[in-house]
Give the backbone structure.
Amino acid sequence: MELQTTERWELNLPLLLMWTAALVATFLVLYPLLYLIYGSFRTSLPGDPGALTLSNYFAVFSSHKIGESIFNTLILMASVTALACPAGVVLVWLTTRSDMPFRRQLEILNIFPFLLSPYVTGVAWTMLLSPRSGLINKFLVGTLGLSQPPFDIFSISGTIWVLFFYYTPYMCLFISAAFKAMDPSMEEAARTCGSSLFRTSWRVTVPLATPAILSGSILIFVHVAGMFGVPAALMQPKGDYVLTTTIVHFIQVYPQQYGSAAAISMFLMMVSALGIFIQRRVMAGKSYVTVTGKAYRPRSIKLGKWRYVALGTNLLYLFLSIVLPYGTLLMVSFLRYWSGEVSAELFTLSNYTEVLLGDEAIVRSIKNSLFVSIIGSFICLVITMLVAYLVNRTKVRGRGFFDYVTTLPVGIPGMVIAVGLLWAWIRSPILVYGTIWIIMIAFITRYVPYGMRAFSNTLVQLGPELEESARICGSSWFGSFRKILIPLLKPGFLSGWILLFILFMRELSTALVLWYSGNEVIAVQLYQLVRDGELSVVAALSIVDALIMITGIIAFRLIFKEDISAGLKR
Amino acid sequence: MAFLKISHLVKKYDSVLAVNDVSFEAEKGEFLTLLGPSGCGKTTILRCIAGLEQPDQGEISIGGKAMVSSQSRLFVEPDQRGLGMVFQSYAIWPHLTVFQNVAYPLIERRLPKSEITEKVRHILAMVKLLEMEDRSATKLSGGQQQRVALARALVYNPEVLLFDEPLSNLDAKLRVDMRNEIRTLQKELRITSIYVTHDQEEAFALSDRIIVMNQGKIEQIGDQPTLYFRPRTRFVAEFIGETNTFEGEVMQTSNSSIQIKALSTVFNLPASSEFASGDRVILVVRPEHLKVNPKDEPELGFQGKVDQRQYLGSFCKYYVMVQGQGLAAELRGINSQDIPTLPVEGDTVSLGLNAADLVCFKVNPQT
């Protein structure tokens, strides 16, 4: 039998594919970043006559308004983190360590709000807590005879309220793995020393999860800085700005001030990058939680008479975060118009017909969303799967660089990537700007780190020996990749796909910066409609949007028998 | 004629020399073990044989066919080498059943279905897993997974079988059982086997010959009695079994003997050209060769005080302080009526040994 041999540098197809993916990923991430940095130092767009300057930065940082928006942003960051962190810990503790009834179902439900669009939730809350037309306000004024409506959602505290419900599940996602993976002997040792079950939880269990809690808090802190939708809906009407709404303002104002937008984006990026850097340092080497090989059976703490209080609290949380806002949206979607009145004579289906059939722009936005979300997420996963393989399984020199580059977007808010892309493509002879493709590029770039992390974790967990044994048994590299690795990566790929589908569907700030007539996605369309005051159409479109996502999840489950919760656990 | 030939193998990781000019040969049908502590290079050598690593220098050939040659820039891919390998983590594919796992290499070789079924069933019967053939691979215990791995490696009659510490993840009793099964199978099938382990007892139980390695180099190659009674380096002496080690100095040499002073005693050992007068030496003796209060006159003897006595059932372990040095001695063949007369802690005892049981090494600045 002729023995096949390989020269070390022989070019083979699989390696070529991986290199292509790695170079594409690098281009996707670095091209807008470099342009952003360049653009922030320029007086006008590339291609137009202009000069390098620091004037953008001067203009931005000497502006009184910018100072205010930085201050507002900081308040948001601090307050939301301070509230979401303990709320998340309590919820996770209740669902993983106590004997609260229905805790297994609640564990999944508590994470559910993460999938909803925070912007839409914010809009829904205006229908409830707007000073004049908010249903709750009117109810309270009516029944309690107040002279003034007690709540005004159009404020910083209103924004904090809505963001609290969005980020608490974020925190839950982060720390639930840490709580569930704890070595029971740590708590048992405390019990042996005489500590009661409850005190053990407080003094042993929670502190053991400190790295995860700290890590989650820092990430939330940083993430809030990049949040656009809710501050846009709830603070902008009163003229209060945060950094993200300021960036959009500079892009949408006439004449556009792209330079200023770039300068603020740079600042935002620095803040985020610093946060991620600190988070990495905190996590490095500080894993108190030991994951043992033994099957961990958590010993539930008996709440006794507090069981039902706990259940009630959790249910109240779910009611406030999901049922109330979306129930209101559902109701309003059937009204002819929204002005605070709910009456049978306003009932209509016209909103739905307009959304699904009538309005050309809206129908187009639905098609655009589906196109970008289904195809874009798939492309993102294929690219990251190949790059993750290159980084984790090959001995290619320089693979650490690709690992680093594909993780960069974590520290960069989507909006900042979008501003960079704007700068990169707006004067390019290749027609990308203004098309749906730049939206897809932006989304893929933003979510590259998700895919990388998921596949890298899986590859590390699987270990190289599964493919090595296939090679020894007689498979070529490609054969072992196809027959062994792909089937094992499939569950992760599929759950990643459905997760990214949902995240793409709800992405707003990135799409808004790159918005051009014709490339709207649903999120941008909603934003326009809110600005135009067509709230009942907004409600109908939001419900349709939510239905698309739910249908997607169910269809996915039926076709592939995969669960989104698997993807969320990363 | 050697079946497996490794010559001048070198492998570097960054600046660390994991394998430092290693050469050895294995006969057809031989069970050869690479034994050594973690990081000694044994696994790297095994993976080079398998084709999972590429050495920086050296040649490997199996059955006369060259697999790797740095000189002629030859590297045969792992799937073309016709080897079988059992991994430490078993590497059983979780998405396939037991049958599918074992059938995989036969499917790769495009054998007809009926032949595959026959061979798979035959080998599964050999490892006593026939009734599990349709079970999902994830639902097996550690020992069962290990047997599937073994079956999969054997089913296509490889020329050489490689083992990468396959028993480390099993608990003690299972390890011994599996060890015996592997030995039985290998003796029956007469497949040339290269086994890697850090467990000296395992190596001794399984092998025809053992290669002891340390820090990328071969310390000694030999069979069990040679390694046990005639270790050639201090490392081998201390790695294999238990030893007593103490220092000494060469006083005189002559044609018939060398005179050594150690532990305040002067004695003679058979002549050796290795030593010159004035050399510092390390002396090594096994505990079972140090006889406590021997009845007949031994060739050499030391006096000391019993520091600790441990009655271990079939023998008694004595830790005796001789000239400030602790020596371990074993007292075997004890009857229950002897027990009251045995020396206890604090007693002065004499330890006797034969010169032939002492092994002497020159002090190497590097050891």
